[in-house]
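Q: Structure for this?
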Amino acid sequence: MTERLTDLMQRAVDDLRVPPAPTERVVAQGRAVRRTRRRTAAAVTAAVVLVAGIGVGATWRGTSEVEPARPDDTGRAEDLAGNGPALAVGSTVVLDGGDVIARVGADAVRSLYYTSAGVVVRHGTDAAQDGSAVMRFSLLTASGSLTRLPIELQSAVPSTDPTEPYLAFSTVAEGTVQVVVLDVRDGVEAARVPVPQVAKWGAWTSPVVSLDGDTVYVGSAEGSVSVDWRTGEVTETAEVDVYPDVRGGHTIATADGAPIVVDVATGELLAGTTGRSGMLSLSPDGRYARVGERIVDLETQAITRVGLRGPIGWSPSDEPFTLDGDRLTTCSPTTGECVETRLDLPAGAGSDDVRLGGVTYES
Amino acid sequence: MGQDATPGLPSFTEFVEVAWPGLYRTAYLLLGDHQLAEDLVQDALAKTYASWRRVREPAAARAYARTVLVNTAASWFRRRSWRREWPTDELPETATGHDPSDRPAVVAALRTLPPRQRAVVVLRYFDDLSVREVADTLGISEGTVKSQTSHALDRLRVALGDDVVPAPARGLPRSRP
């Protein structure tokens, strides 16, 4: 029945002029990818405990072959449909720019974390971020299903990568820091890696972590480290401070008192600011940095201005957005064009009750 | 290259030379643009290079590279700016007046499909993967593959005509298992 379609597609590419394979460029780029995934200098291998690993963990475990049919390590295919901003007002969570609305019971939402499986919602008895109460976590998917995750944390600062279905956090067991990676699709631990190299981490009950691909960056007052959670490899990481925030291999650092963006693997300066420029914010996949209403494309160095005021979040696809009352404004980071949407939100909510995706709300 | 240690496996550079044309054609059908197709395949093979030491047999390498390619395309599609620029929800009015046998017609028709439907069609009817293989590659259920295929064929039928994509016979499955 579809033979003609197959034939047409075949003929459409039969006489295509296929350019020669740029093998050298592929290899050079591949090496850069590998460096980003795993920094090997001065590595100390730690034991990795894969606990009932599934998904990618199971794909690589037991056999060292590349399996042909698991797309998870490069972003889940469900995301082909795309998704828009996530935000919360009180206990009401809005996904995809208003396409999905759910409530997390009587709890107040404290933070939203983008993952490839949906948005992880951190919630508790109030919206405070001072570590005074236990935080619960739920996964809200694009289909509207809300599932509690089997963890409760107090002041630990968790992290996600929007292209991966994992939540990473740290804990301290018998005096030793452990990095835990939770598969949010089923709440099962994918990995637990001891990190004895980290002993001082500031005021938090356990170190702050940042998940970026296969790497969990662990903040330390004595020199932060990166952990390849699939192998357990631990590496010193010069470019990351005690509060790591790494996205797409990029992180925010400070030079002469001014925030800058650097490449974690190479230390290359990608964007700088003057000390008066204000706070820098990285987009979820690290391609863009925002200072005020200026968006910098870190690949092209192009600067785009967006007409947004007030707290600004990021959609999982790197679009800055704001919520003003019930008015959601989402802008393109490349053209500055904005689209306004009216949302059906609970009445009487104050701005203190609002949480935007892509924004850190940590004490 | 330091990547070619597995006995019986072609070196990575040999793999690139062999796999490049097929991946490029798949990428072109997915994207409809030569330069973007080249960039996509280069990205996919670079990611494959980064995992090459774990490869043990050529078929797995090809399938892995194709999966990476599709998922890299997916990450491009996620950007709204991309969605504005490329795929369109507007169907051509009808197939009347088109010559469905020319390359622009089929490539243009594919570009009217939402990204996942386009990926399903290209993988099934160009790369000749089974429903199960497409589901595995895209990380979706077989049921979703079938429904996406059905929707995609409906749209392609409008764009290319019944001669190219005949309507399914009543009572018969629309797609092969």
